[in-house]
Amino acid sequence: MSLMRQIGLLLAAVVLLALAGAVGVNLHAARDTLATQIKLKNSDNAQSLALALSQQRGDPALMELLLAAQFDTGYYRSIRLVRADGSAAFAREAGARPQRAPEWFAAMLPIPSTPGVAQVSDGWRALGRVEVVSHVAFAHDELWRGSVQSAALLLALGALAIGVAAAGVNRIRRPLDATVEQANALVDGRYVKVDEPNVPELARLARAMNGMVDQVHRLFTAQAAQVEQLRREAHEDRGTGLPHRAHFVQRLAALLDGETTAGHGTLVLARVAQLADVNRELGRETTDRVLRAAAVTLRDWPIDGALAGRLNGADFALALPGVLLTAQVATALAQALQQALSGIDANVQMHVGAVAWRHGEGHGPGALLARADQALARAECEAPFAAHAEQAGEALGGGAGEEDWHRRLQAALAAQRARLADYPVLDERGALLHYESPLRVQLDEGGPFEPAARWLPLAQRSRMLPAIDLTAVRLALAAIAADGQSRAVNLALASVADGEFTARLSELLAASASASAKLWLEVGEASALGHFELLRAFAALVRPQGVRFGLEHAGHALHQSPRIYELGLDYVKLDVALVRGAAADESVRRFVSASVSLLRAIPVRVCAEGVATGADAQALWECGVQGITGPWASATSAH
Amino acid sequence: MRGLAAAWRAGLFGLALLVSTPWALDAARMQRAAERLGPRAMAAMPSLTALLQSGTGLDDEALLDAVNAFFNRRIVFRDDAEIWGQADYWASPLETLDKGQGDCEDFAIAKYFTLLAQGMPVQRLRLVYVRAQIGGDSVAHMVLAYYPRPDAEPLILDNLVTSVRPASRRPDLAPVFSFNSDGLWNGVGSQSAGDPLARLSRWREVLAKARAEGFL
Fold first, then answer.
1. ipTM for the predicted complex
2. Is B178 close to A39, i.e. CB distance below 8 A?
3. What is the set of domains in chain A, with CATH numbers?
4. What is the DSSP letter of B124?
5. d(CA A305, CA A322)
6. What is the pLDDT of residues A382-428, one digit of tens each?
7. Using CB atoms, which residue from B174, B178, B187 is nearest to A121?
8. Residue of chain A with shortest Cα separation from B191
9. CB contact under 8 A, A123 and B184
10. What are the chain B neighbours of A31 within 8 Å (beta carbons)?
11. Closest CB from B153, B183, B188 relative to A124
12. pTM (predicted TM-score)
């Protein structure tokens, strides 16, 4: 049985009990009152009758008339005149009178009619006594009417009480129902708040439920946010919010295969030139701004269905289904990127390469990306923010990108299609200290000699750096032998670590001892960190041959890693980020001075990289720098 | 709760009365009633007690004489207006003794209850309204009449004529109406001195008082 029904029944029982009790008490009180009134009436009537009878001088006829008149005009059950000896001188009895009250009621509540007695005399003579008994039917009628009325009234009151109680129960039930609804809503994932009712106990319940709903809502929201975060991490590049490589390739594949998408489109690649250098020179924060600006430009590219992504650190991609104006798109994007980046740093450069795809060409996303990579490589050989769109037939055989690169590089090296560029490093007197000699490779026969930025990452992936570095050393030695000028060659750590490379290098150095004395070999400071033993062994191998060994792009970790000085260094080239603006910035000069005094004590020759202006150069000379390279050095040397 | 307790006590009292019927002299109750009334009532108690005790064994006429003489000697006639400050007041026997004064009803009532207390059957006694001729005037008066048998000539106990005489020797009195307490206690036994119903008329009130004083 439900709680509400129990309460309802309890209330009804209480009301009925109270009602029955009230009616019962009321009935008994009324019955007693009526009995008293009848007794008084009997007694008083007997007295007045006796008074009248006593005035009749004992005349039996007159007395009988009086008695009969009293009996007939009144409402009596019996009137008797009893003589002193007990015999009845006169007696009238009335039969049962019709009454409105039912018999059972009269039987249940008998009303006693106490006889009224009075003495009758004639002068001094006692005649007897008169006994008067009134009828009680009228009393029963009265009692019946009263009880019916009071029962009706009390029933009405009871009904009213039950109505009020029902309203009260309803008032309790509504908040309870609301709470149940709230809990059900919670199960369905809806977060419903209920109004707090006025009843304190229920208000506490509602408050607690609301609090719980809030808490659950918070938990769910936090969890959903976490899931969203995980999803973004799984699919998006953290720095820019673009899809990362795997996700982009997946979606590109869907674009290429999709039957609902356009059967053709354009894939554009954009790359930040020398991202590592940019990062070093401008700092991480500015680099991030650059990357974000590029990402925003791609993401907001105003073509429906455009898909932007970040393939790796420097590479962005934009797939434009339905677009075939490949060259125009590439140019427009390059211009947009230039505009976006010009506000951040004028030195940052990007290049754009674009290819078109057509349905049925059977290109997977990998092949398409490889083709776009080639177009990008062509753009990189051109001016900053150059755009290159693949021309018909330009694609190299359609082979997979990496294998193709590997084959082409190997072919170029085998055919000796490589040469060195020369960038002068001047000493404090303005004389040539040595040439920095990066390798240029002619990837395609008869094509341009392309810089390391073009093929270095591919060479690295193809594990061809030792061979390339060996070629560079061989060329440098040959050049030294030819013009007697010192030359510096940059080696990759992978080469230094390669046993075959070091063996071949030793042979080369030994074979041309005089040239070796003018050869400078350097590795990047960043790659040197953590490989002290390797570099120390390498230094110990090459320096006895007269080779000078040094660090390039150095200065960032010199103070943190004192063991660098144990490597056996001949020179150090301070990174452009550390020496730029020496003329204007006191702190730069202080840093350079401190580094110079520290390193010259070892002794190590200190050079500065990337010096662009004469003022900077002058300031750096004053700081004790013993060599300068960069645009200023190139310009000075050319004069 | 107090009402309930009072009702309970009243019920017990009524039950005690019911059990003790027929009622007779209750000396202890009379003593307590006299104490409540005051020192003059107390002072009258020994002689009243002596009167009540002396009645045992006497015949009716000797008893009538003794009681008649006791009250006629002890009580001085005076109007109710002077005694009680009311036009008409029916005093109980002890009240009359306490005051030492009374009018004709008080005499008759005191004698009536004293006789009943001594075991006189109620059917033999009647209080009678009479018209008395005093000098040339007719005055309303009350006397106590004793009927040795229902149809016999009564003996009159009066305070105007101090000796008990048969009715025929009282030509100055013309009876008008007589009454007694016969049948008044009939019916339900709930009546008592505390019953408000008992005080609805002068007669009933004085009956209730007499019972409370132990005469009945």
1. 0.74
2. no
3. 3-160 (3.30.110.200), 241-399 (3.30.70.270), 405-638 (3.20.20.450)
4. G
5. 9
6. 778 888 887 644 443 333 455 677 788 888 888 888 889 889 999 98
7. B178
8. A36
9. no
10. none
11. B153
12. 0.46
